Amino acid sequence: MSPAKHSSNGWKAASVDSDPLLRFHWRLIQGGERAGASRAYQSSLSATGLPDLLPQIEFCRQAEECGIDSLLVDFGWSKPDSIVLSTALGLATQKIRLIVAYRSGLLCPTSFVQQLNTLSHLIQGRFSLNIVAGSSPDEQAYYGDFLSHDERYDRTEEFLAICNALWRQDGAVDYSGRYYRVEKSKLNTPFYSPERTFPEIYIAGNSPSAQRVSISQGTCWMRFPETPHDLAGKIRPVLESGKEVGLRLSIIARPTREEAVAAAYELLKGADAQFDDRAKEKELTERSDSLSIKSLNQSSEWGTSSLWTGAVRTHGPAAVALVGAPDEIASAILEYKSIGITQFILSGWPKLESMLFFGREVLPLVRTKERALIRKEPPASVSAMPAAL
Amino acid sequence: MKRLRFHWSLSAAGEKFRGAQSRSAQNGIPNYASLLEFCRHAEACGIDSLLTAYGFHRPDPIVLAAAMGMVTAKIKFMVAVRSGLFSPTAFVQQVNSVSAFIQGRICLNVVAGHTPAEQRSYGDFLEHDLRYERADEFLTICRRLWQREGAVDFEGKHYRIENAVLNTPFLSPERQSPEIFVGGNSQFAEQLAMKHGDCLWRMPEAPETLAPQLAPLLDKGVSVGLLVSILARPTRGEALAAAQTMVHSFGDAPRRTHREFSQRSDSVAFTSVLKIAENGSPEWLSPCLWTGAVPFLGAPAIALVGSAEEVAAAIMDYKRIGISQFLFMGWPDLEEMAFFSQSVLPLVRAKEQAIA
C-alpha cells in the first residue's frame, strides 16, 4: 500500500461514501450471561470465563439482522481474551464486525499489531479497536502494570503511536519514548480491509487524557454520556480535530414510557438477593481510578427526561441509559447527533431482547428522522457530520 | 518405552522453498486455503502437532492456532512464544482462551529469539543470556497461573505481578496446563527446559556425538526432540538425486542470505549448524544426516536423507539414544508428509514394536 493512499482517518478513498447515517454497535453477550445480572455478579461466575460460542454466534447473526454495525468484545481478567474470541467469532460469521477491547501494557505494540494484522486477513478486516487504559489498579497489577491513571494514558498514547506508525507502512519504525522503545520495527503481515488502511480506533474514557489520546492517536472518542447540553462543549475539540465522538449507552425501551420507566426500576429490584450488588459495585467504584466511573456515581438520576443514571450504582458506568418509548429514544439519539455524535455502543437488559426491540422499533424511527433532516439541511455543518466526510 | 511422536512445521504452508528467501522478503500474509489444506493433510497423516513459529516475517502464531483449531478436530498447535513481548498474565489468558475453543489442542514452543536486531524491533533490548533469565521468570509466572492454587504474586528482576487471577482456565481433556517445549542449543536453553519444560528441541548431530549430551535432561525426566528436515524416497538413489536437484536449483543468492543472517544471529542452535555446513566439513554427518541444504535454506534444513528404510532406521538410532520426538520440515511439505506417513512411519512403528 502506498503511503499516499493513507488518509489520516484511515478510510480508503473508494469507501468514503456520502452516507451520514449514525452507526450503532452493541455489546456481545458473555459466556453463560444471566439476564439482568450486575457487573460484579457476572464477573464472579466461572461461566463468564468460558467460551459459549453457539449462543454468541447466534447473537452475532441476530445483530446482523437488526442493522447493528459491530459487537463489542470486552477485555478483562474474568473473560476469555478478546482477540482470540474475536478470531473465533469472526470466522463463524460473514458480515458483523467486532470491536476488540484491549489495553496497553499487556503486550508490546509490534506483537499487538502483528496479531491484529493476522486477524484482519482471516476475517477481511471486520474489526475495530476499543482501547481502554484500564479502570482498576488492582486488575492492572494482575498483568504486571503498576502505573497511575494519567501515566497509563501517556503509555497508551505511545503504544498507539507505534501501532499507527506500523500501520502507515512507510518504512521501518523507530520510536523512543518514556514507556516504549522499538528499533527498525516492521512486519511482513500488513493490515487488510477492503475499506480501510488501519482499524478504527475508539479511545474509551471520560478524562482529559482520554480526550487528548483520541485526538492524537484515535479515530473516535468513545465516552459515557452526559446531557447533550453538557456534552456539546466538551466534545468540540475532538470534532474540530477531525475525529469522531461516540457514546457508550444502555437502552431501556418499551412500547410506552410508563412501561420503560417501570422496567428501569425493576432492574434495580432484580439485583440478585443472594449477592450484594450495591456493596460490590461500591467497592469496585472505590477501588477504581477511572474518572468516568467516579463522576457518574455522583450525578442525579435523571439528566434529561430520557437519560437515567439510576442503574450505575449496581451495573457500572455502561448502565447510563436512555429510557422511554421508541419515539422518545429515537429523538434523544437525534439530539446527540445534532451536537456531533456519530456512533453509539449500546447495550440493554437482556442484551438480546433489548437489541431485537431496538432493531425493530427504535432504529427505523432513527433512520426516518435522520433522512428527514438530511433532506432539510444538506451537509454543511461540520459538527453534525462524521469526521470521515 | 513410549512410541515416538512426530510433529511438523506449519511455517512454509503453500511455499516450497520459503527458507531460500531472506526473512524480509518472505510472505507474511496467511493464506487460509493453503493453511487449511496443510492442517487437514497433517491430521490425516497422523502428525501430532503443527509448529506455528514466531517472527516479524510471519503471521501471529496464537491467532493462527485459534483460527486453524476451529476448523480441525485432532491436530494440535505448537505455538512459538518469545518472552519479553507479552505480560505473562495476558499470554496465559490468550493460551487458555485458545485451549477453551479448540479442546486444549495447544502446546508451547518457548524460544528466546535468535537475532538481536529482530528483538529490538519488538522493543526487546536484552542480550542473549538475559533473555533466558527473563524466560525463566516468565514461565515461572505462567506455570503458577496454570496451577490455579490461588492468586499469583511474583516479584523478580524482569516481571512483577500482584494477586493475578484469571477466570478462563486451561481446558483440555488431558492436561491442566499446556505441554512446554523449549528450543535452543545453548546451556541456558537446557537449563530452562530442565526447570520448566517437558521437552527440549535440539538441532541434530550424529547419534554418537549427541548421545552424551542428552543424559542430564533425560535424567531429569525431560524429553529431547530433534528439529530436522526430511527427504525420503523409495530408494536411496532417488533421495540423493532429489537432494542434488534441489541444491542445484537455488543459485548463489540464498547462500549469501544465510551467511548474512548468521552474522546477525546470536542463537547458538542456528549459528552452530550454519558453521558446520559452511566450514567445508563433510556434508554427511552420518549416513543419513545431510547438511548440504543448510547454506541455502538455513539451519533447520539439516536433513535426514535416504530411502524409507534408511530414514526409519536413522530415526530408530536416535530413539535408541533417548530422542523421543521429531519436528520435521520437507520440500515440499505436503508430499514429504504423505510419503513419511505411508512409507516411513509404518516401518518405524514396526521397528518400535519389535524392540518393545
Secondary structure layout plus pairing:
The complex is a heterodimer of chains A (389) and B (356).
Chain A (H helix, E strand, L loop, with lengths): L22 E5 L11 H6 L8 H14 L3 E4 L8 H10 L5 E7 L5 H14 L4 E6 L4 H6 L6 H20 L4 E4 L4 E5 L15 E4 L3 H10 L2 E4 L4 H13 L3 E10 L3 H13 L7 H11 L3 H6 L10 E2 L3 H4 L5 E4 L1 H14 L3 E5 L3 H26 L13
Parallel strand pairs in A: 1-2, 1-12, 2-3, 3-4, 4-7, 7-8, 8-9, 9-11, 9-12
Antiparallel strand pairs in A: 5-6, 10-11
Helix pairs in contact in A: 2-14, 3-4, 4-6, 6-7, 13-14
Chain B lengths: L4 E5 L22 H13 L4 E4 L8 H9 L6 E7 L5 H14 L4 E6 L4 H6 L6 H20 L4 E4 L4 E5 L15 E4 L3 H10 L2 E4 L4 H13 L3 E11 L2 H13 L4 H12 L3 H11 L10 E2 L3 H4 L5 E5 H14 L1 E7 L3 H23 L1
Parallel strand pairs in B: 1-2, 1-12, 2-3, 3-4, 4-7, 7-8, 8-9, 9-11, 9-12
Antiparallel strand pairs in B: 5-6, 10-11
Helix pairs in contact in B: 2-3, 3-5, 5-6, 9-10, 12-13
Describe the model.
The complex is a heterodimer of chains A (389) and B (356). Chain A has 14 helices and twelve strands. Chain A is an alpha/beta fold. Chain A has one domain: Alpha-Beta Barrel (TIM Barrel). In chain A, helix 2 runs parallel beside helix 14 (351-376). In chain A, 53% of the residues are buried. The model of chain A is unreliable at 1-6 and 381-389 (pLDDT under 50). In chain B, helix 2 (61-69) runs parallel beside helix 3, helix 3 packs across helix 5 and helix 5 (128-147) packs parallel to helix 6 (187-196). In chain B, the strands form two sheets. In chain B, strands 1-2-3-4-7-8-9-12 form an eight-stranded parallel β-barrel, surrounded by seven helices. Helices cover 46% and strands 18% of the residues of chain B. With 356 residues, chain B is an alpha/beta fold. Chain B is built from 13 helices and twelve strands. Classes of the chains: A alpha/beta (389), B alpha/beta (356). Chains A and B meet through helix 3, helix 4, helix 5 and strand 6 of A and helix 2, helix 3, helix 4 and strand 6 of B.
